[in-house]
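Fill in residues.
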């Protein structure tokens, strides 16, 4: 056996399918075996592998033991002379493996090999070649010196930026997305260290290979796509903590004395610095627009106060200082709070949701106004004037932002992107049907013929060789490649040639998904015919959680009444606290004998959609259907209906 390919998967079914299809092509002329180790995915990855790839050796774990342990499970069963650890969110060229074998056979002292990687936009990924994270190297990486001096041998040893990405090089660290290993070397230096749950294991193994007297290489003669951001979210505090803790494990294992202590101290400081910067960045993105809205409304209300005092009351000092200190902040809080919960700050920006939120907020403010003391009720008309100003100013801010970014005033209206499909007429027709079923709207320009098809002006825009001209003439925004008709090598060639200004997607052979990614730091984008569940949206989850809090506080106030309604008061109290602490929701799925893993995950519910029905016995299929409809068409009013009808059973466990 020449090669054993090992892929560890966790909830990236569609990307795994595409990776396996590319691997199937790449091993067509080789004596090879493929392993997939699934770490308890809940997206039907295991079922997909069993149905579509019966030749694959599947290991289905019942838990998530981590990246290192899962790879080791398959390595111990592998029979190949070479072992490839491959990420599921990758695409390899048809001859990638053959080139790797030729290189390794010609370099007997090569212990491991990495290749050139590009992201979903065709950009080169610098982690394709890396150096060991010695203290100074890590310092330059953590504090941005490597970015300031990307070609410096001194300041950018982490990504070896001084080495030509288009030439083969001896390097120090391989990327975990593609680690080509000599099996005999693995036996000598040991398998992946299972102390690393995720991150750091590639650095540790690369270091041990070099210490064992072997060399690691970067092979520029072949390229793979690596859709970064799929299994991990790099903008999260969890990523910062996990990554730098992995570096601490590495430092404690391989460094000693003052070098180890200084490195560990540096890494610990980096955790706090990076965590702080991540928090600032995340909150900055979230709060910038609300704070800008609040400032605009505050300034407008301040001048409206003076205007109305002079114009109507003929007294510039009519409004007391409390109006500025109490009333205006109260108005802004209610207006923007309702805008937030109505989705006015969700992407993409919607002026319709903004205006709707401000109108509802004004109605709510009018109701609150009546409960205020007389000294805090200066003028209802001023609230109306303020609401008008709030609509004008906040809408103006969005229009101005949109104009600066896009050069037009179509706020909330996504530009219909010009789409070209590269493939045969038959496959392009299937792709257009998939796009239609996924309810994705594109301005379809036409089809570019693959090399296997004769150029027919009535059917195709051009041949593949003129793709760059088609992109320029028709101002194409997005390309979809049909992998049935276009080789991975050709796809990657055109991605790197046309550059990151376009969006690229690939439709795998006989697949119902179209896969792509516009950034190495963002999750890949899918056009699938899967059902879109409303409960899976950010706005629905946020509003559901807020409703849980509100209902819990209401139930605390109503406890004397509820004690007469329910049979078991103490379980009710426990349910209230469980919901407040986030362990439960007031409404969730009805559990049944069949699994509900295909639905978006939510907290266990005190009540469920069946609690409003009068039937005592319902079969499992009906339960699954009701759960499905609850997730698909979720709304806050649905939860309120279920809770209202289930008040007498809020004590159920």
């Amino acid at each position: 056996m020449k090669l054993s390919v090992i892929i560890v998967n966790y909830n990236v079914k569609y990307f795994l399918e595409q990776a396996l299809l590319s691997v199937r092509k790449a091993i067509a002329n080789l004596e090879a075996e493929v392993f997939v180790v699934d770490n308890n995915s809940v997206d039907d990855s295991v079922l997909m592998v069993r149905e579509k790839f019966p030749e694959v050796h599947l290991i289905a774990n019942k838990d998530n033991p981590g990246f290192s342990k899962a790879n080791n499970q398959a390595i111990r069963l592998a029979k190949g002379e070479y072992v490839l650890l491959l990420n599921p969110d990758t695409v390899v060229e048809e001859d990638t493996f053959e080139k790797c074998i030729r290189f390794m056979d010609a370099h007997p002292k090569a212990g491991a090999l990495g290749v050139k990687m590009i992201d979903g936009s065709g950009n080169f990924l610098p982690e394709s070649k890396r150096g060991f994270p010695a203290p100074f190297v890590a310092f330059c990486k953590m504090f941005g010196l490597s970015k300031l001096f990307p070609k410096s041998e001194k300041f950018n040893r982490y990504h070896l930026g001084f080495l030509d990405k288009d030439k083969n090089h001896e390097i120090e660290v391989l990327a975990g997305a593609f680690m080509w290993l000599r099996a005999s070397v693995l036996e000598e230096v040991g398998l992946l260290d299972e102390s690393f749950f995720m991150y750091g294991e590639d650095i540790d193994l690369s270091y041990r290979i070099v210490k064992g007297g072997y060399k690691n290489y970067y092979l520029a003669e072949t390229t793979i796509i690596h859709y970064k951001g799929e299994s991990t979210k790099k903008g999260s505090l969890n990523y910062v903590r996990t990554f730098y803790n992995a570096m601490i494990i590495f430092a404690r294992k391989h460094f000693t004395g003052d070098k180890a202590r200084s490195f560990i101290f540096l890494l610990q400081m980096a955790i706090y610095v990076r965590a702080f910067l991540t928090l600032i960045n995340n909150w900055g993105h979230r709060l910038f627009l609300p704070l800008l809205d609040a400032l605009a409304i505050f300034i407008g209300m301040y001048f409206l106060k003076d205007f109305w005092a002079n114009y109507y009351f003929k007294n510039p000092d009519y409004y007391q200082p409390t109006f500025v200190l109490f009333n205006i902040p109260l108005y802004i809080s209610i207006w923007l709070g309702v805008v937030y919960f109505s989705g006015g700050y969700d992407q993409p920006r919607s002026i319709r949701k903004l205006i709707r939120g401000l109108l509802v907020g004004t109605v709510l403010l009018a109701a609150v106004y009546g409960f205020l003391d007389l000294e805090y009720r200066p003028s209802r008309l001023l609230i109306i004037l303020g609401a008008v100003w709030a609509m004008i100013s906040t809408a103006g801010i969005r229009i101005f932002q949109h104009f600066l970014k896009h050069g037009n005033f179509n706020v909330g209206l996504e530009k219909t992107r010009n789409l070209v499909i590269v493939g045969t007429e038959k496959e392009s027709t299937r792709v257009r049907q998939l796009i239609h079923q996924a309810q994705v709207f594109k301005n379809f320009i036409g089809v570019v013929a693959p090399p296997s098809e004769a150029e027919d002006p009535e059917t195709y825009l051009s041949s593949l060789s003129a793709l760059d001209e088609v992109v320029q003439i028709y101002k194409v925004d997005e390309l979809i490649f049909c992998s049935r008709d276009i080789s991975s090598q050709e796809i990657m060639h055109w991605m790197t040639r046309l550059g990151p200004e376009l969006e690229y997607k690939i439709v795998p052979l006989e697949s119902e998904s179209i896969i792509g990614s516009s950034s190495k730091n963002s999750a890949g984008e899918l056009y699938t015919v899967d059902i879109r569940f409303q409960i899976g949206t950010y706005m629905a989850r946020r509003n559901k959680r807020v409703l849980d809090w509100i209902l819990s506080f209401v139930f605390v106030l109503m406890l004397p009444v509820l004690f007469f309604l329910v049979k078991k008061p103490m379980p009710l109290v426990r349910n209230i606290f469980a919901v407040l602490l986030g362990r439960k929701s007031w409404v969730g799925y009805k559990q049944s004998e069949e699994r509900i893993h295909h639905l978006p995950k939510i907290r266990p519910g005190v009540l469920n959609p069946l609690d409003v029905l009068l039937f005592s016995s319902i079969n499992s299929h009906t339960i699954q259907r009701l759960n499905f409809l609850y997730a698909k068409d979720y709304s806050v009013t649905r939860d309120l209906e279920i809770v209202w009808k289930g008040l007498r059973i809020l004590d159920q466990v």
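The two ends are 56 Å apart (CA to CA).
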